[in-house]
Amino acid sequence: MAKSILSNEIIIKLNSVGTYSVGKTSLIRRYTENTFSEDYLPTLGVDITVKRGVIVDAKPIRIVLMDTAGEEKFGSLRKTYFEGSLGCIAVYDITRPETLKDLDRWLKEYRGVAGEDKIISVIGNKIDLAGRRTVPEKDGRRYARAQGSAFYEASAKFGGKIIPRIFFDLVQKVLRNLPG
Ligand SMILES: Nc1nc2c(ncn2[C@@H]2O[C@H](COP(=O)(O)OP(=O)(O)OP(=O)(O)O)[C@@H](O)[C@H]2O)c(=O)[nH]1
Ligand SMILES: [Mg+2]
């Protein structure tokens, strides 16, 4: 955590992890800009977005979102973006079961750099594709519980109140996890 010199904002760095095309960037865009695009533009290395003006527990927060690429070829770069991270969204796609299994590998990599005590929220994305669902909600919920994580199902496409809720809850847990 850091404090801005010019304002009393608390700066919290968060990451996204998960396999390519699960919708990490789309969830973050929905949260920061309230937009969605059907086009798939893979993240190249990292996208950094800053969200200001969030108030949690009466404290002004500046969220720095480090949205990393899911494609394997960016592996070595990714680790450097996890340094100093206080929490992450671990995203899978409810139409691709392997993407839930992949979270083991992602969370191992994330925790290995950021630390074991970091706050992780598990998100099953693309629930608008209900007819193509192959991961039951209970499987995601069970996985999240085993990780000691909060669990959400969401759609970056549909948006709704769940999107700000995910990030608000994560920041609140991070704040309450900070020493002092
Ligand atoms: N139907 C549907 N499509 C989605 C949703 N979220 C993302 N997509 C689509 O899935 C594709 C991948 O989305 P991205 O957000 O770029 O995925 P990503 O996880 O950031 O992928 P990488 O950057 O390559 O790791 C795009 O075509 C999006 O439009 C969703 O909730 N519903
Ligand atoms: Mg992306």
Reconstruct the topology from this structure.
Layout: E1 2-3, E2 10-17, H1 24-33, E3 46-56, E4 59-68, H2 75-82, E5 87-93, H3 97-101, H4 103-114, E6 119-125, H5 137-147, E7 150-153, H6 162-177
This protein binds guanosine-5'-triphosphate and magnesium ion.
Molecular structure report:
The structure is a single chain. With 180 residues, the chain is an alpha/beta fold. It has one domain: P-loop containing nucleotide triphosphate hydrolases (Rossmann fold, 3-Layer(aba) Sandwich). It has 6 helices and 7 strands, in the order E-E-H-E-E-H-E-H-H-E-H-E-H. Strands 1, 2, 3, 4, 5, 6 and 7 form a 7-stranded mixed beta sheet that branches. It is globular and about 50 Å long. Magnesium ion (MG) is lined by residues 24-25, 43, 67.
* Ligands bound, unique: guanosine-5'-triphosphate, magnesium ion
CATH superfamily: P-loop containing nucleotide triphosphate hydrolases
How many helical stretches?
Answer: 6
Based on DSSP secondary structure assignment, what is the total number of beta strands?
7
Number of separate domains: 1
Classify the beta-strand content into a percent band.
Answer: 25-35%
Proportion of residues in helical segments: 25-40%
Instruction: Compute the CA-based radius of gyration.
Output: 15 Å
Low-confidence segments, given as residue ranges, are: none
Question: Which key features would you list for this structure?
Answer:
single chain; 180 residues; alpha/beta; Rossmann fold; 7-stranded mixed beta sheet; 6 helices; 7 strands; 34% helix; binds guanosine-5'-triphosphate; binds magnesium ion
